[in-house]
Amino acid sequence: MLSFYNSKISVAGTDEAGRGCLAGPVTAAAVILPPHFQNQTLNDSKVLSLETRNFLRGCIEGEAICYGVAHVFMEEIDALNILNASILAMHRAIEKLQQAPQHIIVDGNRFKPFGEIPHECIIKGDAKFLSIAAASILAKTYRDEYMEKIHNEFPMYNWKRNKGYPTREHRAAIREFGATRYHRKSFKLLPEQLTIDF
């Protein structure tokens, strides 16, 4: 069962989604939960079904003290690199919080200080602490919603299903149709072909 990091202070959990995708933004969320918050279903978004994630999104948005969600789009990803873009997305999500947290907990092992607020990076934090799990749900559902929207513009890539991840189907579509304005130009969109010199 997930727990609170510290129920005596205001703690924001933050996480991102879409870091390994070939197309679309990297999306981050930050969430401050009330000390009485409980939910037996809440977990790392990656282990939950679509229906459960969408249900939990409503619970989180309805019960959180505050939350923020931010996209960092392809141009900034290409300019900054994906790690820096992911951290920027988390910073922007924290900036949207209506209440400044006293502490920040981050899923993963890399972060940059956000003002003077102390932070801690926690490996697999989305499977350990409620506020990070909540942030993972919001980041995932908001990003998926965005990918489903742009799917209608370029249905041949089937972003509605693969969400921009490097599936075989997605790479086959890139090979056939080329890259779109939603693709990350700094990523290796197609694996390098092996050649044999005779």
UniProtKB/TrEMBL annotation:
Tell me which Gene Ontology terms the entry assigns under biological process: DNA replication, removal of RNA primer; mismatch repair
What are the entry keywords? Cytoplasm, Endonuclease, Hydrolase, Manganese, Metal-binding, Nuclease
ATP-binding among the record's keywords? Answer: no
What sequence ranges are listed for the domain RNase H type-2? 9-198
Q: Which reaction does it catalyse?
A: Endonucleolytic cleavage to 5'-phosphomonoester
Would you name any one GO CC term?
cytoplasm
Binding-site residues, a divalent metal cation: 15-16, 107
User: Sorted alphabetically, which Gene3D superfamilies does this protein's record hold?
Assistant: Ribonuclease H-like superfamily/Ribonuclease H
Manner of cofactor binding, per the entry note: Manganese or magnesium. Binds 1 divalent metal ion per monomer in the absence of substrate. May bind a second metal ion after substrate binding.
Name where it's found.
Answer: Cytoplasm
Write one Gene Ontology MF term.
RNA-DNA hybrid ribonuclease activity
Q: What is its EC number?
A: 3.1.26.4
Q: Is Secreted one of the keywords UniProt gives this record?
A: no
Q: Which cofactor does it need?
A: Mn(2+); Mg(2+)
Q: HAMAP family attached here?
A: RNase_HII_B
Say which family it is in.
Belongs to the RNase HII family.
Write out the function statement from the record. Answer: Endonuclease that specifically degrades the RNA of RNA-DNA hybrids.
For this protein, the record's NCBIfam families field holds: PRK00015.1-3
**Would you tell me the protein name for this molecule?**
Ribonuclease HII
Which organism is this protein's natural source? Christiangramia oceanisediminis
For this protein's source organism, the top of the classification is: Bacteria, Pseudomonadati, Bacteroidota, Flavobacteriia, Flavobacteriales
